[in-house]
Amino acid sequence: MESFEVNPRPTPNATTTNPLPRIVNTIVVCVTMQAEAMPLVQTLNLTEEEEPSIFPKALPWKKYSGTHEGLTVHVVVPGKDLKLGVDSVGTVPVSMLTYASIVSLHPDLIINAGTAGGFRAKGAAIGDVFVATQFANHDRRIPVPVFDEYGIGTLAATPIPNLVKALELKEGKLSTGNSLDMTPQDEEIIKANDATIKDMEGAAVAYVANLLTVPLIAMKAVTDIVDGDKPTVEEFLGNMSRAAAALSATIPRVLEYVNAKSISNL
Ligand code: SAH
């Protein structure tokens, strides 16, 4: 495999401490579900690479690439489970995909786009697109000193105040777990995580991006209201295409905003 070089870790005062501010030229958009990815792939007019040469053969992972107003954009998707044929949702496939994509494609920025459950009590409504300000896990309970904190694994998002203001985006903390439903224990930890949105991948992408010092923006469209009265699965399925449309409308605007800017100016 190609040797891997990382750019300097962005810091809040990167303009003064970092002699080479990272300029956004190449972006990887990491999307879990095929149905979420396709409207975006079509909107951006990207081309699918058959058997992407950057990934080991036999993997179901997909890559759609092209340029958008001079930016190089790759949308990567973990694809369908080889045995069951359903989307490879959850933390493990997306972590592997994010790692491989960073190592091979050297993005200046990763966007994790997807859907999430939203908490009405925290101001979420169906179809809203949220930018995550913080990532944490709610299903990694390790009641041993320090490991408890490792399990939660809180990470701050790359600050993007100017982008959020310019595009009038909603912001909220994201809590991730490998279940679509929510046990009472999950609920307790999600509350402690102060989450507005809940998904099954975000904190895993943040873990990999943070390890490899690549800036990350997570954008999540709300498909279901967790503290509402409708069953999650029904609500999720009913709103999936609306959420995918909201993402494919918002992400091109984000791409246009970040294009050729320094991360520290976002
Ligand atoms: N495709 C399945 C469900 C997929 S799992 C179905 O057809 O029913 C749900 C996906 O949407 C995951 O990728 C997850 O990140 C996101 N998601 C949406 N609402 C969620 C919620 N309430 N809790 C956790 N993840 C949610």
UniProtKB/TrEMBL annotation:
InterPro entries: MTAN (IPR044580), Nucleoside_phosphorylase_d (IPR000845), Nucleoside_phosphorylase_sf (IPR035994). Residues 26-255 form the Nucleoside phosphorylase domain. It holds the Pfam family PNP_UDP_1. This is Nucleoside phosphorylase domain-containing protein.
